[in-house]
Design a protein that fits this description.
single chain, 10% strand, globular, transferase, transit peptide, transferase activity, Altered inheritance of mitochondria protein 9, mitochondrial
């Protein structure tokens, strides 16, 4: 431009996502994160979500990224400098979680959606005559439209609750499976002779089994289900830094298809700290291998780099635990069996049905075991209450001195009556509890009923 500023014209690729909505949402999202959340995103000068213009294409005009790609400097940066970058990104992600967003979907300006309801506005006070106000509209999440999903009719939001959101994901996958006679190639699977072949029947069965428990395995903590905007592709080529001060982030790009979904599905480690190797568990410091001294110089360097990468990965989690426990808890939930089932269930059309089936079987077994243990614990607790009430000791077998017999008999009778009044809701249950009563005087049968 005449004033020396760089301007970039961005035109969508054919696979960029949902036409019209993706461009409108990207423009609004960059404005929101830049000017409301204070996260460095490109300034938007103008855009068109229609092809009815001189360019004959959708486009966004935005300022240049400024700075240099972090990827050009990352390998030469010290681990301390890398940690500073991670701290900054953690601060941005905390801002994402702190934002008050009313429902799941994607961000838009009110003027770009037909008659949005007051509940869709991020600030309900702006719901009247505020064309530039931010609202939540249909999702631009690529998972809803990739691999031919855009050819199927389904609910694309917005969704007021996490339950409606995850049920829509499952319904979308079912609709795609039912319509298709073949399925997209499964990631990481070599489908040669005598290898696994996707089955429509199995995919449908797995989703139907999942739907039986889908809303029951969501996080118990409502904070983990809050609608959350999240940039899930923070790799070193999407982050621009000041070359004279490499730890200062000046811009983050690639906001296309950034969407609002429940936090437990959004939270993830930034891509730039992912690495090849075992993920460290727990909070103990990572250590060098026991045979480090016997390694070659090259192997020692590799071991040191792996330990440094593992440490950075864990430090991110520690930072989140201190700065934004909700994100740390969401990461922990995602790694749990319930979290893995919920996450993978959103891609059954393409992949993963045998894995999800196995997880559902494990979930059923674990749930049954938990119920058995809870039932056993409840029985132990009841026995403890009874013994405490009559003044006996744990493990008491009912024997008392002859002189104490009338006292204990009276206590037991009173205790049993109180117990039956507390726990027997019907005459049938009362009869069952009487039969189960552990202290029965065989020599002098009780007359209580």
């Amino acid at each position: 431009m005449d004033d020396g500023r760089d301007v970039i014209a961005k035109l969508p690729n054919p696979n960029a996502g949902r036409a019209h909505f993706t461009t409108d949402s990207e423009a609004a999202t960059m404005d929101y994160v830049r000017n409301v959340l204070g996260i460095p995103a490109p300034r938007v000068y103008g855009w068109s979500s229609s092809t009815d213009n001189p360019v004959r294409a959708e486009y966004i005009l935005m300022e240049g990224s400024g700075g240099v790609e972090l990827g050009r400097l990352w390998n030469d940066m010290s681990w301390k400098e890398r940690l500073e970058i991670v701290r900054t990104l953690a601060g941005y992600e905390k801002a994402f979680v702190s934002a008050k967003i009313p429902m799941n979907g994607s961000l838009y300006y009110a003027k770009d959606l037909p008659s949005p309801s007051p509940s869709q506005f991020l600030d309900p006070a702006n719901s009247i005559d505020k064309a530039e106000a931010f609202v939540v509209g249909p999702t631009t999440n690529r998972a809803f439209f990739d691999q031919g999903r855009d050819s199927v009719e389904f609910n694309s939001g917005p969704w007021p609750s996490e339950k409606e959101y995850i049920l829509s994901r499952a319904a979308r996958e079912l609709a795609c499976i039912n319509k298709s006679s073949s399925f997209p190639g499964q990631h990481g699977l070599f489908g040669g002779p005598n290898q696994y072949r996707p089955s429509k029947a199995l995919k449908i069965r797995v989703l139907q089994d999942y739907l039986k428990v889908a809303t029951q395995i969501l996080p118990d903590d409502a904070n983990l289900s809050k609608p959350t905007l999240w940039h899930s592709d923070l790799h070193i080529d999407n982050i621009f830094v000041d070359p004279s001060q490499p730890t200062r982030i000046v811009n983050i790009i690639d906001w296309q298809a950034v969407n609002i979904s429940p936090l437990f599905l959004q939270a993830c480690h930034p891509s730039l700290i992912e690495f090849e190797g075992p993920i460290p568990e727990g909070s103990d410091p990572t250590e060098l291998p026991d045979n480090f001294d016997d390694m070659s110089e090259e192997e020692q360097l590799q071991a040191k780099n792996l330990r440094a990468a593992q440490s950075l990965y864990k430090l991110y989690e520690i930072i989140m635990l201190r700065q934004c426990p909700e994100i740390a808890d969401a990461l922990q939930f995602r790694a749990s069996l319930r979290g893995q089932i919920t996450g993978l269930a959103g891609s059954i059309f393409c992949d993963g049905e045998p894995i999800v089936l196995g997880m559902l079987i494990r979930l059923q077994a674990e749930t049954q075991q938990q119920r058995l243990e809870a039932s056993w614990s409840a029985g132990v607790e009841l026995m403890h209450e009874i013994l405490t009430e009559i003044g006996a000791y744990q493990g008491w077998d009912g024997w008392v001195n002859h002189s104490n017999y009338p006292v204990y008999k009276e206590r037991l009778a009173r205790c049993r009556e109180d117990f039956l009044n507390r726990f027997a809701r019907t005459e049938e249950e009362r009869s069952q509890w009487i039969q189960a009563w552990p202290f029965e005087d065989k020599t002098h049968p009780s007359t209580c009923s």
